[in-house]
Design a protein that fits this description.
Length: 317
């Protein structure tokens, strides 16, 4: 005889994996809708007609004779909208400055009692807008360790090692001349040095940083466009032997700067592409079983000559 409570137990329960999948899908949809609401709200507040519309509505509400709960609530909503519109305008102004200027100077104090120049440190924040978003800022801290000279020296920084900061600093922040010797009959002429040029250093440094991130982003998009950025088993297999031989198996940067790119084909061919700092393809060398392949080299360098179009040109070889 079966247990009386056995009939109350369902024959089949939904698997835990299906429930987890449904929960993850719902959470992803909530996140997407929340992000969309934030974008729409920012777009509405950033509109040029929104502040003028709020300014026209507010006097009408303040001059209303009746003070019902409805009008009070509407006035509160209008005040909140105006406050958010002002914050959005300041945020847009900050983003515009960050996009156009890209460098901000500030001052900090070194708590070390033995720090030079009484602990005064000048900081520079370098930002760049790459692929629709701001990259993490880079910082340079400078001090004045050559009293009484006002010359600056780089104290600390967060610049990547692949950026030639020492060479740029030696060019635009040279050491000050030594103090003149005491007057004597055999006095030598004072040493002349170039004046320091901090704005030029920041401009050149930001150009190097932007070029570095642009090359890295272009290389990643190139790998994704050729299916090399997908997981194992996600890339489609070639349908014939010719396609398998001409398929690109790997693309990678051979240096930290991303200016030397290595390409490997399915038939064993190896290519090296030299990219300039601004993203132009300068030269290409391809070796196969029979030596150099000049036609493939001309195709890789041809076209518009940019790294962004390299994936399309690889499809022609």
């Amino acid at each position: 005889m079966s247990h009386p409570s056995a009939s109350l137990i369902p024959d089949s329960q939904p698997p835990t994996d299906e429930l987890d999948t449904e929960i993850a899908t719902i959470r992803a949809e909530i996140t997407s809708l929340t992000r969309r609401r934030s974008i729409l709200r920012s777009s509405l507040l950033a509109s040029k007609s929104t502040p003028s519309l709020l300014e026209r509505v507010r006097p009408a509400l303040n001059g209303a004779s009746n003070s019902t709960n409805d009008s009070h609530g509407t006035s509160t909503l209008t005040a909140t909208a105006q406050n958010r519109a002002q914050k959005q305008a300041k945020h847009n102004q900050t983003n515009l400055y960050r996009i156009c200027a890209g460098a901000t100077m500030f001052e900090v104090h070194d708590p070390d009692p033995h720090a030079v120049d009484n602990g005064r440190v000048h900081g520079i924040r370098i930002e760049a807008f790459i692929n629709g978003k701001f990259i993490p800022p880079y910082y340079i801290l400078l001090n004045r360790p050559y009293p009484p000279s006002p010359a600056l020296r780089i104290h600390r920084h967060t610049i990547p090692p692949c950026i030639p900061l020492p060479a740029l600093a030696a060019k635009y922040l040279p050491l000050p001349p030594p103090p003149p010797p005491p007057p004597s009959a055999n006095a030598v002429a004072p040493v002349k040095t170039r004046p320091q040029n901090l704005p030029r250093l920041v401009r050149e440094l930001r150009r190097e940083i932007v070029g570095f991130h642009m090359r890295q982003g272009s290389l990643q998009r190139l790998r994704t466009g050729l299916g090399l950025g997908l997981g194992v088993g996600e890339k489609g297999k070639p349908t014939d032997i010719t396609k398998a031989r001409n398929e690109v198996k790997d693309i990678s940067a051979m240096d930290a700067e991303g200016t030397d790119i290595r390409i490997k084909w399915g038939d064993g061919r190896i290519g090296r592409v030299k990219v300039t700092k601004d993203g132009s393809v300068e030269k290409a060398v391809v070796f196969g079983d029979k030596g150099r392949e000049r036609r493939v080299e001309r195709v890789l360098v041809g076209g518009e000559g940019r790294i962004e179009g390299l994936a399309e040109r690889l499809g022609e070889v």
